[in-house]
Write a structure and sequence with these properties.
By secondary structure, the protein is mainly alpha-helical. It has a domain of about 80 residues: Winged helix-like DNA-binding domain superfamily/Winged helix DNA-binding domain (Arc Repressor Mutant, subunit A, Orthogonal Bundle), CATH 1.10.10. The protein has 6 helices and 2 strands; from the N terminus they run ααααββαα. Helix 2 crosses helix 4.
Length: about 150
């Protein structure tokens, strides 16, 4: 369904439509992930924290908050719930004992692996019928949009 944007009014309508579709996709994606994860008793926000802990080990709570796009207070609440759930442990940093370093437990690793498998199933459905070239073009467009907003 190719639409040619001929004037400013059409462009505004199409860019608004694109932004609304991006939002709808994210809402549907997240709700489907949440639905699949509900039996494990974990949220997508907690999973994001687990993923950052795995991928960027040794970071402080403030670094974790920045990586997860949440406030430091929210990050601390998420960490506490993950620790209470047995998915992470936190120990004092060797250099600065005011910093607690989080590590995944074996339960946390297992939970993250399960969640990533579930996400791949939903992602596969999301991209059904979209050629690789379309994904590449979309990524370039979204990178440009993100750069525009970030400054």
């Amino acid at each position: 369904m190719a639409t040619t944007v001929k004037n400013g009014k059409n462009r505004r309508a199409e860019t608004r439509r694109a932004a609304q579709m991006m939002k709808r996709i994210m809402i549907h994606f997240r709700s489907q992930i949440d639905e699949k994860l509900r039996p494990q008793g974990v949220t997508t926000a907690q999973l994001q924290v687990l993923k950052v802990i795995r991928d960027e080990a040794g970071g402080s709570g403030a670094q974790l908050a920045r990586a997860c796009h949440v406030t430091p207070q929210s990050a601390q609440a998420l960490l506490k719930s993950l620790e209470d759930g047995g998915w992470i442990t936190r120990t004092k940093d060797r250099v600065n004992d005011r910093i607690l370093i989080a590590q995944l437990t074996s339960s946390g690793v297992e939970l993250l692996d399960t969640a990533e498998r579930l996400a791949r199933v939903i992602e596969k459905r999301l991209w059904q019928g979209v050629p690789d070239s379309g994904v590449v073009a979309l990524n370039k467009t979204l990178e440009r949009c993100l750069a525009n907003l970030e400054g």
